[in-house]
Amino acid sequence: MPIELPQMSNTCTVPVPNQPDDPPSVHDFGRAIRFGHDLVLGHLQGKVPETDLLSGSTYTTRMSLGAAERQQEQPAGVSEPPPWFTNAMRDLKNELIDEIRTAKHELKADIQILDHEVQKYGRVVTAVRSFSSVIASQKTGLTTSFYPQLHNQSSVAGDGGEVAGEL
């Protein structure tokens, strides 16, 4: 019985491998492993939704089980996978899913921290710009209000005009 390809969402950026042979070949098995690997990386980058990751992991597991069944059908002289193989693969899949979820939560927390820092520095930059513009607009007013005699002299007599103008 052929192994069905996973049904992926339209947002999944990882291409689904070609339909495997029946029984799956070594190349089919390798493509399934690569597909699962690409799904994990895509999910960590935010390009593959969790539902697609789980669907792809199920497909990869079926391919692994298909490879194990194929080995069991071979002649007696060929070594078979150990009985714990299926459980180990399932446990490994569950561990990977847990690690991916943890990494996803950590990335979201890091993004929130960075977003907060960007907003904080944005407010600081806005305050500095506002303060600078207030200082610049009051520069002329400070000169004439604190030194009115210099301002009046430069406008009346021409003496000290250069000094008042430099302040």
UniProtKB/TrEMBL annotation:
Superkingdom as given in the UniProt entry: Eukaryota
Disordered: annotated span: 1-21
Protein name, per record: Uncharacterized protein
Organism in which the protein naturally occurs: Agrocybe chaxingu
